[in-house]
């Protein structure tokens, strides 16, 4: 269907372009020989055609770009559910940037922990579904309303996933151990007093306890158990979560990491990390090289930020 739309737009553009050129040439030639004195509105025709062409082209490019991720207008909402925000968009941008790799990765099971409105899992499905129609998608959240809202968002986009209301992945761990090929997590990461973590309602969407790490630190070992040998893990963090420490912790479990997206907003400095199992990481002298690892991470973060400011 998408191919048909592209073909239709291509034909329309070609037609409009050639009509505009033909009219422009005809008007110029006729005026040159003094044969006709085209009225003002007729003389504006080529310009109008070109304008239509440009607008149509822009619309096509925009819709092509947006149809690859969830449409924000079709994302369901509820006052007790986290609305897609800068962090959600940065995570989807990271997946979008990695789309070709993700397709080549050929995942069989993809999962999101803490799905909220369903914006991220729906976008992941839309990114992969054309090339990989048989992937099984799972999304979890502790918030029952979020599970319902995610189902509504999925339905509004004509896609489906298994949505489970559970703490991290507790009721799925046995079934999914070693099977998840792609895991995405945008956890509650805001540094808050510890008692706010896991509170009822919307606060549980962002309250991350000391250094914003309470939920993150509980998620990491679960992800390690669920990921398949070739599994990839995308995690949203803030600089105040000490992402280099997170990478170091994961390195001790045998994972390599890199920054996929770095974004600074007025309120926060977001870093989207990607992890994958790496044989080389298992052999390194973990204790003595910690300090150099943190330095290396800081260097790569600075160069990442520099590139963005340029
Ligand atoms: C920052 S929001 C992200 C929502 C959505 N993924 C997005 O990016 O827009 C964090 C989500 O994690 C959920 N959450 C918090 N603690 C959780 C836990 N222990 N297990 C599963 N989900 C949790 C919250 O209810 C919330 O929906």
What is the β-strand count? Answer: 7
CATH class of the largest domain: Alpha Beta
Q: Give the SSE string.
A: HHHHHEHEHEHEHEHEEHH
Q: Looking at this structure, what is the CATH superfamily of the largest domain?
A: Vaccinia Virus protein VP39
Binned strand content = 15-25%
Percent helix, as a range, is: 40-55%
Name the overall outline.
Answer: elongated
How many structural domains are formed by the residues?
2
Sketch the major β-sheet: 7 strands, mixed
Main location: nucleus
Protein name: Methyltransferase small domain-containing protein
Keywords: Membrane, Methyltransferase, Nucleus, S-adenosyl-L-methionine, Transferase, Transmembrane, Transmembrane helix
Subcellular location: Nucleus
Provide key terms for this protein.
310 residues; alpha/beta; disordered N terminus; 2 domains; protein methyltransferase activity; elongated; binds S-adenosylmethionine; Small_mtfrase_dom; membrane; transmembrane; seven-stranded mixed β-sheet; Rossmann fold; 12 helices
């Amino acid at each position: 269907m998408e191919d048909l739309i592209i073909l239709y737009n291509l034909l329309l553009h070609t037609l409009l372009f050639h009509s505009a050129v033909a009219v422009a040439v005809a008007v110029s030639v006729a005026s040159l020989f003094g044969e006709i004195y085209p009225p003002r509105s007729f003389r504006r025709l080529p310009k109008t055609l070109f304008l239509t062409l440009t607008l149509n082209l822009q619309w096509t490019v925009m819709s092509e770009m947006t149809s690859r991720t969830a449409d924000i207008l079709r994302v369901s909402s509820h006052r007790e559910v986290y609305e897609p925000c800068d962090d959600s968009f940065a995570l989807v941008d990271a997946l979008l940037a990695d789309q070709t790799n993700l397709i080549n990765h050929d995942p069989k099971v993809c999962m999101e922990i803490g799905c909220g409105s369903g914006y991220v899992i729906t976008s992941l499905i839309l990114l992969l579904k054309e090339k990989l129609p048989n992937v099984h998608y799972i999304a979890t959240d502790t918030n029952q309303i979020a599970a319902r809202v995610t189902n509504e968002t999925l339905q509004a986009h004509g896609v489906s996933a298994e949505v489970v209301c559970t703490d991290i992945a507790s009721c799925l761990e046995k079934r999914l151990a070693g099977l998840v090929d792609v895991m995405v997590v945008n956890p509650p990461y805001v540094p808050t007093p510890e008692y706010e973590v896991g509170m009822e309602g919307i606060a549980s969407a962002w309250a991350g306890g000391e250094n914003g790490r309470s939920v993150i630190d509980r998620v990491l070992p679960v992800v390690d158990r669920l990921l398949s040998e070739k599994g990839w893990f995308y995690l949203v963090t803030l600089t105040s979560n000490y992402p280099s420490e997170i990478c170091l912790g994961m390195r001790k479990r045998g994972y390599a990491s890199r920054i996929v997206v770095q974004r600074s907003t007025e309120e926060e400095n977001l870093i989207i990390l990607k992890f994958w199992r790496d044989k080389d990481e298992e052999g390194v002298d973990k204790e003595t090289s910690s300090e150099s690892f943190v330095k290396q991470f800081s260097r790569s973060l600075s160069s990442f930020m520099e590139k963005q400011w340029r």
